[in-house]
Design brief:
Strand content: 35-45%
Largest sheet: 5 strands, antiparallel
Number of helices: 0
Organism: Sphingomonas molluscorum
CATH architecture: 5 Propeller
Pfam families: Glyco_hydro_43 (PF04616)
Protein name: Family 43 glycosylhydrolase
Shape: globular
Radius of gyration: 18 Å
InterPro entries: Glyco_hydro_43, Glyco_hydro_beta-prop_sf, Glycosyl_Hydrlase_43_Enz
Keywords: Carbohydrate metabolism, Glycosidase, Hydrolase, Polysaccharide degradation, Signal, Xylan degradation
Structural class: mainly beta
C-alpha cells in the first residue's frame, strides 16, 4: 500500500538554491530536531519501501529517498531543458519549484510550478514517470496557467479513497486564492474546476490528507521569508469542504523561523504520521530572512476527536 503526500513554495529569487545533503546529527549537537537537507517546499510520499521527498531545486528537480530517515540518496528527476514548451514564451529565464509526486494505477505523475510570473503568468506542468526516482517525461504542454489575480503555483494532488476522484489543489501567494480542479483519468489534463470556499488564513501551499474519515486541508500562512510564515489547517467530511478552521500546527519559535510549505506522510514501518516541512535556521528577528531553508521531519499527534496537536520545533 502506498501513502502519498506534498506541497509547496519558493519565490524565484531563491529557486536556484542548491540542495546539499546534511550529515546525520552526532551526539552532543544541541539541536532539538535535526533538519535533513537544504531545500524548500518538500512533498513527501512513501513508495517501494522508501520515503521520498521532492523539494524545490534550481535548474532541475530531484528525488531524495531513504529507508531509515538518516541516509539519503538524491536522483535527478526533471530539468528545465526537458520542458520544451517553455521555449516559446519569450522569458529569458525560468524557475522550477514546489513539486508533487503521486502514484495512480501503477504510474507516477510529477506536478510542478514553473515561472517567471512576469511577464509570463505562472503555470503548472506535469510529467509522467516510470518510478518515484524517474526518469520522467513531460506532458508537452502546461497543465494550468495563471491570470486575472490567480497564481498557478504550489500543486498538490489528492486521490479521494472514497470516491476515487483525482483532485488538484493549486494557487495562493499574492492573490491568496485556492482553486481545486478534478483531473481527467489520464492525470495530465483537467476535466473541470470544483468550486470551493477560501479557507481562513490561506496564503499558499495547500495539502490534503484523510484519516479515519476526516479530511484535513492544511496550508501555509504569512510571508515566505518572515517569521509569520506558519502552517494552519481545517477539517471537513469531504475533500472539498465545507471547511472548519482548526488553528495552527507549526509556528515560529525562538530557534526556528518561518516553518511552512509542508506535506504529511506515514512512516511505512511504524504507521506513525509525520509532517515534512521547511524552516529557517540560524535566523533572528521577524525577517526578511536570506539564505537557504532546510527540510525537517517531525511526528504529529491526533487527539481523540481527530484534531492535530500543535508541533513543537524546540523545547
Amino acid at each position: 500500500m502506498t501513502y502519498r503526500m506534498l506541497s509547496h513554495h519558493c519565490r524565484s529569487a531563491l529557486a536556484g538554491a542548491a540542495i546539499a545533503l546534511l550529515l546525520s546529527a552526532t551526539a552532543g549537537v544541541a539541536q532539538d530536531v535535526p533538519s535533513v537537507f537544504a531545500g524548500a517546499d518538500p512533498s513527501a510520499m512513501v513508495a517501494e519501501g522508501k520515503m521520498w521527498i521532492y523539494p524545490t531545486g534550481g535548474d532541475g528537480l530531484q528525488a531524495w529517498s531513504t529507508t531509515d530517515r538518516r541516509n539519503w540518496k538524491k536522483d535527478p528527476l526533471l530539468r528545465l531543458r526537458d520542458i520544451r514548451w517553455t521555449e516559446a514564451d519569450g522569458a529569458p529565464v525560468h524557475y522550477l519549484w514546489a513539486p508533487d509526486m503521486v502514484l495512480d494505477r501503477g504510474r507516477y505523475y510529477f506536478y510542478y510550478s514553473i515561472g517567471p510570473q512576469n511577464p509570463t503568468p505562472s503555470r503548472l506542468g506535469v510529467a509522467v514517470c516510470s518510478s518515484p526516482a524517474g526518469p520522467c517525461t513531460d506532458s508537452g504542454k502546461p497543465l494550468l496557467t495563471g491570470g486575472d489575480g490567480f497564481e498557478a503555483i504550489d500543486p498538490t494532488v489528492f486521490i479521494d479513497p472514497k470516491s476515487g476522484r483525482r483532485l488538484l489543489y493549486a494557487g495562493g501567494s499574492a492573490g491568496a486564492k485556492l482553486r481545486v480542479f478534478e483531473l481527467a483519468p489520464n492525470m495530465v489534463t483537467i476535466a473541470r474546476e470544483v468550486p470551493v470556499e477560501q479557507p481562513p488564513h490561506f496564503t499558499e501551499g495547500a495539502f490534503v490528507h484523510e484519516r479515519n474519515g476526516i479530511y484535513y486541508l492544511s496550508y501555509s500562512h504569512g510571508r515566505w521569508n518572515r517569521s509569520d510564515y506558519s502552517v494552519h489547517y481545517a477539517t471537513a467530511s469531504s475533500p472539498i469542504g465545507p471547511w472548519q478552521y482548526r488553528g495552527a500546527i507549526l509556528t515560529a519559535d525562538a530557534k526556528y523561523k518561518g516553518p511552512g510549505h509542508h506535506s504529511f506522510v506515514r512512516d511505512p514501518k511504524t504507521g506513525e504520521w509525520l509532517i515534512v516541512y521547511h524552516r529557517w535556521e540560524g535566523q533572528t528577528g521577524d525577517g526578511p530572512y536570506a539564505g537557504e531553508r532546510r527540510v525537517a521531519i517531525q511526528p504529529i499527534r491526533y487527539d481523540a476527536s481527530g484534531l492535530i496537536q500543535p508541533v513543537k520545533m524546540s523545547d
